[in-house]
Amino acid sequence: MSYRIQENVFDKFFKHRESLIRQFKKGDISKREFIEEHYAFIERLNLKPFQRIDSFEKGIYNYQYYNMLAKYSYMKAKDPKLIQKHPAIAKKLLEDADGYYRQKDKSALRLLEYLEFKNVEAYFVKVHSNNLKDKLFEIVLKDYENVVFHSKSPWLMECLKEEGVWLEEKKRSVIESYINERY
């Protein structure tokens, strides 16, 4: 019984995520709006991350959960008005974002382990940002449509190399317009 409830939550989550991706690709929403709407939807779902990753859906949900919290916290922390009026809050939001990014990377690894690193490839991506150049890499799950992870984590990169899925080349991101748009 509870499995069917989770399945409905996953159906809602993936349908909403795909809708946002389509809207972004068409130019109907900006990256900032994508992040704000995705964050608000996750909050409305009121579903915390899963402790055990025993399905693809749970792994993706955990990754997206932490990724959106990280991006949202980072976006809010960079608000000039907040920085000026409440620098301590802005600093706390940056610290929160860093913590969420660490959890996102752990979630990515847990899902990759569950999938046994099958049909996965990872590589550095070509980016416009000097801060991300030779740091941001992409992990593509080739068996799934629209499933791509990004990270700057050296320890995660080492795991990918150890598993033999790291490519020693720089490629264009499969979601280039998204990663290169500022928010």
From TrEMBL:
InterPro entries: DUF6648 (IPR046590)
One Pfam family from the record: DUF6648
Name this polypeptide is given: Uncharacterized protein
Organism (species): Thermotalea metallivorans
